[in-house]
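Need the bound structure for zinc ion, inputs here:
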Amino acid sequence: MNVFILGDLEGTAGIVDFQLQTYSDAKYYEQAKQLATLEINSLIDGVLEGGASEVWFLDGHGPGGIDYELMHCEAKMVIGRPLAAPWGLDESFDAFFLYGHHSMANTERGVLCHSWSSRTIANCWLNGNLIGEIGFNAALAGSFGIPTVFISGDDTAVTEMQGYVPNIVAVETKVGLSQTSAISLTPLKSRQLHQEVGREAMKKVSTIQPFTIDPPYEFVTELLDADHIASKAKQPDVERVDTHKFKIFGDTLVEIAQRR
Ligand SMILES: [Zn+2]
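Answer from helper R.:
Posting the output first, comments after.
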């Protein structure tokens, strides 16, 4: 079985701060990447024990969320920017995993919650419904017929994902108290759980349906800063909605992901 893991950094145990941990100029950025990488390695151990033959890991955190030196020797790393969807994902994969994720922007108690960019985006809607990265990417995997079988992240990210895939297998790394505080597992405990639950998720692959959203697609982005709308609206096939919002259209989620 081939497994594709889409990773982020905000959902890792022990990580609760943009300025101190997840931005590339953060004082503890290198430590944050180490915490994530060791957790990912435990997940990969579990996935391999569960029968995976090939494991790809896509580093989805903007400025990078892993320490290459520490990365599990059996994984293939999908890295670099810009990284256009579908990033090598295709029908040959059997299961999609979401590692270290956060809930969508403006989620109550959502640890480091945001939608794609904490610095520039206020909200996103797909076909009229608010959506964040986890829902969107699960639907993108679903468009290739691949089920999303695992998520790890804070409790609000897990709850958001259960709205799309009720029987998804999950590791709750922390319970959010606010956007920048949480009751977190220790890294050691979280690694243990990633391994155990990752192994368990492999057994459930055949029982979880791919999550899909029917085409055609209409994706609306609301920017935080009205100054940026003019340059966005000038691009071809982009419709300006109001002072802060623009809209794009597409027949596939890959197209939307590439142009949003
Ligand atoms: Zn991120």
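Comments: The longest helix spans residues 29-49. The longest strand covers residues 169-178.
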